[in-house]
Amino acid sequence: MKSLPVLPVLLVLVAVCTVPAVRAQVPSPAMSAPWAQAMCGAWNDDAVLTDKLVESGWMKNDGGRGFKIMQIYRADCPKAPRIEMQIALKDGKARCEYGGASRTDKLDGSADYLMWADTPRWREMGAGDYGPMKAMMFGRLNFEGPRMEAMGNMGPFQNFLLLVGKVAGEWGACP
What we know:
It is a single chain. The protein has a single domain, classed as SCP2 sterol-binding domain (Nonspecific Lipid-transfer Protein, Chain A, 2-Layer Sandwich), CATH 3.30.1050.10. Strand 2 (83-90) and strand 3 (93-101) form a beta hairpin. The chain is built from 7 helices and 5 strands. It has 175 residues and is of the alpha+beta class. Strands 3-2-1-4-5 form a 5-stranded mixed β-sheet. Helix 3 (47-55) runs antiparallel to helix 7 (154-166) and helix 4 packs across helix 7.
């Protein structure tokens, strides 16, 4: 039996073992805390949200806290926690200052928002299949919060729903 030359075999083994493993970047589950953090960044990159919500006066209604709260969740994921975004007026813009796991127990119904829908509905709204008005009228998006204020901000609200489709997330499993 013939033996293999030791040095070439060792060089091949060293090369194979030291090559860093390449892993596919798997997105976080949609509406998980890391996804909410990415959503916060996407909010800050959207001029309609950062500018128009200031121009309309939406930012002034913050319950005296200095920020508004938006909590959202997937209704068909009952064991998953809500996520939260806190929006504050910074440098004349409506900026998302926090995106992550919900940390507010009691929302102020006159200033804050709670929104929930089943996963397929979130995906449809995120794809722009329909806007917030149709979604709420047909019960595809459930909503608690200052309704008249929301009605006066349908343009920015549409952009918010479109961000749901733009932020990468794994929709196949609950967070």
